[in-house]
Please model this.
Amino acid sequence: MRAASLLTLIVAFLFSINPGWAQNSITGLRTGNFDGTARLVIETLNETDISVFLLSNPYRLVIDMPDARWRITNKGASGALQTPPLRGYRYGVPAPDISRLVIDLDGPAVPVRAFRLPPNNSGHRIVIDLKDRGETAFQLAAKALRENRRIPLEVDETSEVRQDRLAMLMPLPRPERNHGERDEKGKLMPMPRPFDKTPDRTGKWVVFIDAGHGGKDPGAISVSGIKEKDITLKAAKELAKLLSASGKVRVVLSRDGDIYHKLRRRISLARAEKADVFISLHADAAENKKARGVSVFTLSDTASDKEAERLASRENKADLIGGPDLGTTDPEIGSALLSMFQRESMNQSSVLAAHILQEFEGLPTPQRGHRFAGFAVLKSPDVPSVLIEMGFLTNKKDERNLNKGAYRSDLMERITRAVLRYLEASNIPAPEEAPS
Model:
């Protein structure tokens, strides 16, 4: 009897220091929607780790956890979910020590944040927020998760009351907010329009073209007075026409006039359009008037050289022209999960850069190659992004070239061929090819 009591105490002690010694249970499953984001809440008896991956044809989010039995009162092991894009769920045991929860999706939604909540009367809670950012974002996330299925679970120590409200089954009212940029008179600035005025993207990839600078931010200015913002806008419109003429691309311009946008807004507009590619066009300036040539930049925490570091610093300071950014911070910015996806986005950005540089061979100006720097405008976590420095306005030859329609046309034709080749060679299907 004493031995049995001692064994009981030992088991209880082991369970208290490591709940994984005992079989776990899934005790609750809830969904909700807030501000366009679907929230999935999984309640378990004990704290657990999870592994996650994405599947397509059809779209699915798969969540694996160590041995956890289905113990949800009045809820079967499969059923429908009423929170788009969460369409249904299925529980199973693919291996003796693995429990699997499959969430059926009605579109290419990806997890944008995953975190734990402190235990309450319902037990331990894992929260996964999902959003449909388009097919490219889905493929980037799926590849990143194939390489590292065990996703980082942050700990959210915020108010229990607020978190419970967000996780309610019924959809929440959309909060009033305004992320729009305002002009100098305080009026909301217009959202960008698709260049070819096509309201949907059926059968076409989306390419977002960002004409650098604009409005009260002129960018670099040549000795003869040519402003970078004017050169980039001309180039952006020319590139838009060429890409649209292919019949395979819907183009969205960050601006089609002399408008100022903060860098974060340029990113958010591209993501809202579910862009497959982001291209930012610029014309450089340098203290050395002999500096000239074209460069293709992709994002990196470490700059490839001092010149690239100075350039990125100067471009990032463009936001200060419009005063402090008092807009609401995107809640996804601090997500460790999106940081993981961004690494894959950076890899794809490098592939796109290689295609562009290959097309630049033979240009009548030096090629400065693939370079890296911490450009804020390239920090989208789910859109392959490049910044093209088309030349130096502080160099007479480059200035003369960039001011010639024939030279710009040649440059934009090369970029068009590179973008189309990248899209066609990638694993990103055009929307009409995406599974329904």
User: Anything to note?
Assistant: Confidence is low (pLDDT under 50) at residues 3-22, 159-182, 191-201, 324-333. The longest strand covers residues 109-120. Residues 20-166 form a domain with the Immunoglobulin-like fold (CATH 2.60.40.3500).
